[in-house]
Amino acid sequence: MAELIIKDLHVSVNDIEILKGIDLTVRSNERHALMGPNGNGKSTLLQAIMGNPKYIVTKGSITFDGQDVLSMEVDERSKVGLFLGMQYPSEISGVTNSDFLRSAINARREKPISLFKFIKEMDKAIKQLDMKPDLAHRFLNDGFSGGEKKRNEIVQMMMLKPQIAMLDEIDSGLDVDALRIVSDAINECQKENGMGLLIVSHYARFYDYLKPTHAHILVDGKIVLSSDASLVEKVDTMGYEWIEQELNITL
Ligand code: ADP
Ligand code: MG
Ligand code: MG
């Protein structure tokens, strides 16, 4: 069983403290919904866990199965089984999708994956996400539509089979059918691998598909409320303002 433990995490960007003491544990088979008004640090938390060097950890700890994550490079974090599906995936010209994925997969294995197995798995993922068959041979995210980029993040997740996957607004920009396709793929991958999920989204519809076991609200760099999926419904119907009154804080 995998266990990602975050303790008293403080993170600064450009010398401004964005995260002000986050405590969160995500284990295999748990599905955590992370919500909160815009600009309060959700993406910052995910970027800091994955090791984006712009996000400076000034205090606290992150461990994965007892190993110190903060001392790992980004590729080591990927190797131990962490994955981030990004809000704004970057375009990389000159590297094809399949080259990128094969080297990412091989970096985590003793022996390289056979070409046959790789192609089979990639075809399966591409079909499952209802993407164009030439996807494998196109440069990574180059000229992809917003929706295609998001689906491509899920193709990567399915191929890399992480132990803990973090998805940052992966549902934004998806139409109703695409949302269902992406959700089904995430669910299938989750069940197959017992993956733990940390899901950032604003939309109850996405969470309806993914059935969170836990839900958290992040305000001003702190998790101010944690509960079960009922919290998702409450935010969907009432927004965030009630939190202000209930906790006597200012959003
Ligand atoms: P959320 O994902 O909750 O909308 P973010 O984590 O993206 O919020 O942003 C939290 C705060 O940190 C914002 O004030 C944002 O401007 C700042 N911030 C985040 N990332 C960067 C960055 N790469 N450069 C400058 N400021 C950033
Ligand atoms: Mg703020
Ligand atoms: Mg964000």
From TrEMBL:
Alphabetized UniProt keyword annotations: ATP-binding, Nucleotide-binding
Metal-binding is among the record's keywords: no
PROSITE patterns named in the record: ABC_TRANSPORTER_1 (PS00211), ABC_TRANSPORTER_2 (PS50893)
Gene Ontology molecular functions: ATP binding; ATP hydrolysis activity
Signal sequence coordinates: none
The keyword ATP-binding is assigned to this record: yes
Domain ABC transporter stretches: 4-247
Family note: Belongs to the ABC transporter superfamily. Ycf16 family.
Protein name as annotated: Fe-S cluster assembly ATPase SufC
Organism of provenance: Floccifex porci
Gene (UniProt): sufC
